[in-house]
Amino acid sequence: xxxxxxKIFGLLSQAHHNDVLKILEKIxxxxxxxxxx
Length: 37
Fold this sequence. Notes:
37 residues, mainly alpha, Restriction endonuclease type II Pab1 domain-containing protein, Restrct_endonuc_II_Pab1
């Protein structure tokens, strides 16, 4: 999981900051929902 996240962050770091923030928010929401379930 963490290795995959690091790879994702590495790819996102090359994208625009606005897009990165939006994607990170969606990913965090999904992770939180999955952990709660």
